[in-house]
Specification:
single chain, about 300 residues, alpha+beta, Aminopeptidase, 2 domains, 13-stranded mixed β-sheet, 8 helices, about 35% helix, about 30% strand, acyltransferase, N-acetyltransferase domain-containing protein, Bact_Acetyltransf, transferase, Acyl_CoA_acyltransferase
Length: about 300
């Protein structure tokens, strides 16, 4: 393979599309290897949203986004990483199938880790790909297997929330940042700009504690954090009951520390299966917490 050149991802439509296509190729190949159906080709709205997310990370962390190009200038891999108040996270690391096993991923991860060298804590949501998990473990991360839950919510089996959980807004940013600092040592800060624009937010805050949960339009839980299992159960239950009739709910990256989430998923009639891993360095697994693969 020709020599690899790493360069920063630029805040341009062209680079955003390059990153999107790299991710689509890598994740599509991953689905095939696991015997799963490939994702439905995205419509223009979904493509625009993915571009916006890619450029969000380029803008907030320009030194954390890197493209790998071969000698002919073809992009073969990309990494995007972020720093949020001393907590580093790997938002994306993909390599084209034809370039895998040739050191491209290792080079990209090294550059991303170099960006976060001053951070005490680190988080990665990993796929089941053996090479990826091996690389993260060698980089000093603890590896925690995860559960993925999926299905249409059975409302007749799911108990109603034990208290108020309401639609959130930008007014709840201080609450969410406070919960995040308590759980993961760093607030999500500017990531709420993107999350609030594209996701439904459920918030609970009373004498029993505080919690929030972002949910995608398609039914996937994007991010959840709470000060207690009771509050986490409340916002997750409310988020699931708030889905439109017939929508498929998905909850990813549920580690063994999140048994409260497993209980809610089982009560809702969701199917459980082993999935990937969440990797932590310099910190205990946050709980109650369901990370976002991109926003961590």
């Amino acid at each position: 393979m020709p020599p690899i050149l790493l360069r920063p991802v630029r805040d341009t439509p062209e680079d955003a599309e390059t990153v999107r296509l790299l991710a689509a190729a890598a994740f599509g190949d991953s689905h095939t290897l696991k015997g799963e159906s490939p994702e439905t080709p995205p419509d223009p709205e979904r493509i625009a949203r993915r571009h916006e997310k890619i450029r969000h990370f380029v803008r907030t962390d320009p030194a954390g986004s890197w493209l790998a190009e071969d000698g002919s200038g073809q992009a073969v891999g990309v990494a995007q990483s972020v720093i949020r108040e001393g907590t580093w996270g790997l938002s994306l690391l993909v390599v084209l199938p034809a370039a895998q096993g040739k050191g491209v991923g290792t080079a990209l991860l090294s550059r991303a880790l170099e960006y976060g060298r001053g951070c005490l804590r680190g988080i990665i949501c990993s796929s089941r790909h053996p090479a990826a998990v091996r690389t993260y473990r060698r980089a000093g991360f603890e590896v925690h297997p995860t559960i993925r839950m999926r299905g249409v919510v059975d409302r007749t089996r799911l108990d109603p929330p034990d208290g108020a959980a309401v639609e959130g807004s930008a007014r709840d940013r201080d609450l969410m940042d406070s919960v995040d600092r308590r759980l993961r040592g760093g607030a999500h800060g500017p990531d709420h700009d993107y999350l609030l624009a594209h996701h439904r937010l459920v918030v609970a805050d009373d004498l029993a504690g505080s919690a929030y949960c972002y949910v995608r339009d398609g039914g996937r839980v994007e991010l959840l954090a709470a000060t207690s299992r009771r509050m986490a159960t409340r916002v997750l239950t409310s988020a699931l009951l708030g889905l439109s009739e017939g929508v498929t709910a998905e909850i990813w990256d549920v580690t063994a520390e999140q048994q409260w989430a497993v209980d809610v998923g089982i009560a809702a009639g969701l199917e459980l299966r082993a999935a990937g891993f969440v990797c932590y360095r310099g910190m205990r697994p946050p709980a109650p917490y369901i990370p976002s693969g991109a926003f961590l």
